[in-house]
UniProtKB/TrEMBL annotation, chains A, B:
Species classification: Eukaryota, Metazoa, Chordata, Craniata, Vertebrata
One Pfam assignment: S_100
Gene coding for it: LOC114448884
Recorded GO CC terms: extracellular space; perinuclear region of cytoplasm
SMART domains, A to Z: S_100
A molecular function (GO) term: transition metal ion binding
Occurrences of domain EF-hand (ranges): 46-81
Keywords: Calcium, Metal-binding, Repeat
Official protein name in the record: Protein S100
InterPro entries noted in UniProt: EF-hand-dom_pair (IPR011992), EF_Hand_1_Ca_BS (IPR018247), EF_hand_dom (IPR002048), S-100_dom (IPR034325), S100/CaBP7/8-like_CS (IPR001751), S100_Ca-bd_sub (IPR013787)
Length: 87, 87
């Protein structure tokens, strides 16, 4: 379990580090991450408009960036759906 | 990333399935999971009192069980600490 958590952390950092703050995902970084890493779990993963809506729904403090815990919420819902748990 | 999410889901299910509802972790199931799977990420992983406190802090609906999203919160905070992100 700890190694799976480590994978999610390191991949978040890999994408978050490309531009701006290395602790947050910009819109472009988020789009790349979803398209390349979550193609099966996220419906319309390649659709920029859908991804923009997804990002705004997660961006609780509306700073245009996703911090780790905001990102973690997305993964939680995807995991919950993938696991077949009632939402 | 999707495979790492799959690992976390399947391991949650493996522990949640041993007694009672297979969608939630009982106190015993949670204690086993933390002790065996998160020995490095959770301080005092072997201490029943510490684990009880941890479980109550996560059990938002206080039903004595942890559903997947309640459990996911714990993993998020552990991952955030592991990643060195400000909480």
């Amino acid at each position: 379990m700890e190694s799976a958590i480590g994978v999610l952390v390191s991949q978040f950092k890999a994408y978050a580090g490309t531009d701006g703050s290395s602790d947050t995902l910009s819109r472009d970084e988020f789009f790349k991450l979803v398209t390349l890493e979550l193609p099966n779990f996220v419906k319309n993963a390649g659709d920029p408009v859908a991804i923009d809506q997804l990002m705004s729904s997660l961006d609780k403090d509306s700073d245009g960036e996703l911090n780790f815990l905001e990102f973690w919420q997305l993964i939680g819902h995807l995991a919950s759906k993938h696991g077949g748990f009632s939402q």
